[in-house]
């Protein structure tokens, strides 16, 4: 049953009139908590009944001194004592309705507090999910860092320092070549960020004759925080170099943009 059908059923009028069973009263109360429009309808019914009660309540009759005097003068018989009825007031009626209105106001406050609490719970759950995701990311990064350090510290890994060249003498880098796994790790922390439209490209070199072989471009230089990059190297390398090339890389190195170069020790 939808909310409007529930309102139109007439059960709210019976609730206000106190004609429902305890179980039915609980059901109506639950509906008021869940649906603010039901609470508003109960308030509207109570307001209408209160207004009607005021309109049909007997008006207090006021007996003036002149009225009493006229009665005395026109009375030809024995003097009579006129009993003045004490005006009745409707305090009990009004107090009952006031209590009902206060109850409804309390229900509205409860609904509002419930909504505020649900909003806070949702906020806490969102923050909890964010921090859990952050912790998972940190744990993943730590695991990757540990794996990387173990690879760089392996017994058979060959470390090759790459010195800065004429185009950028302050540059420096280091290559860690694991011949067994055909992997080379490049630590490019000492290179400046490439300009827009440019990428760094790694090269494996044989010296006699000088033959460069591309190991690939470093496309994620900006986003990689530790600036260590893993590349495949199946070559019989004698040296490694890093050049700055147009995005997408080049077939052969641009020697004028050679940033670092280093040879394996004999």
Outline the structure in words:
The two termini are 87 Å apart. β1 (158-164) and β2 form a beta hairpin. The chain is α+β, with helices and mostly antiparallel strands. The radius of gyration is 46 Å and the shape is rod-shaped. α2 crosses α4 and α4 (36-56) runs antiparallel to α6 (91-152). It has six helices and eight strands; from the N terminus they run ααααααββββββββ. The chain has helices at 3-8, 11-17, 22-34, 36-56, 65-74, 91-152, and strands spanning 158-164, 172-178, 183-190, 198-207, 210-218, 228-232, 239-246, 258-263. The mean pLDDT is 81. The chain has two domains: 3-127, no CATH class; 158-263, Immunoglobulin-like, CATH 2.60.40. It has an eight-stranded antiparallel beta sheet with strand order 5-4-7-8-1-2-3-6, with no helix packed on it.
Helix content: 40-55%
- Spatial strand order of the main sheet: 5-4-7-8-1-2-3-6
Oligomer: single chain
Please tally the helical runs, counting DSSP H or I stretches of 4 or more residues: 6
Number of strands: 8
